[in-house]
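Data card: per-record layout.
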Amino acid sequence: MDDIISGVGVVDKSVAILAALAERGPSTLADLVAATGLARPTAHRLAVALEAHGLVARDARGRFRPGVRLLAWGARSVPGAEALVDAAGPVLRRLRDATGESAQVYVRDGDGRVCVAVAERAAGLRDTVPLGAVLSMDAGSGAKVLVAWSETGAKRAPGATGATGAADASGTAFSAGELAAVRRTGWAATVGEREPGVASVSAPVHDRSGAVVAALSVSGPVDRLGRRPGERLAGAVVAAAAELTGLLADG
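The structure for this 251-residue chain is written out next.
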């Protein structure tokens, strides 16, 4: 725990726990102890207290993760994010029911992307990406979509193909050719890129001006989605992203 700055111990320790969850994603108590340097009883006591306030939650495996209340506060501080989260819920549930797969919405936050809305499957592999998870911008179809329309590309109308690849400008691992292909097709698919054994398909969500403000995704195990998940799911994902785009335009 290297960033104690206020001198109010309980606040600094609580912030250390929240920061660790934001950076690491779902974490066991042992993970929190290792990340924060706090004593195990202290980390447990504070994590449980934060859970009582909705700032921390548990996933299906009992791991700690950022809570919905914390996410909601964050959403309200970003222009347009609250409307995105509110509109995304029904769209994601319909997409989940239509595809049988978990569905998520991501927004970019600096060098990472945050899952701000999710609809999980009722059974099978769950919490593939929990609400509030902070993921890399270097891997996964959601990252690829957000990068493809970032910088100059983000300001182009949906479907534009003339933007320069953003990989060099943003420092991500995606090539200009990959990003151009995403803009050309309007969606991205990856298999085992972010996490071994997991596949995903994503499409951009636009605001009223045509800028991409989010990536809408479905994800699940490769043995269910297959090695070419875009062939099965791209149509449904693109349609759901277009529906969410329309709701934001009408809002």
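Known properties of this structure: The longest helix spans residues 229-250. The radius of gyration is 18 Å.

See the next section for split statistics.
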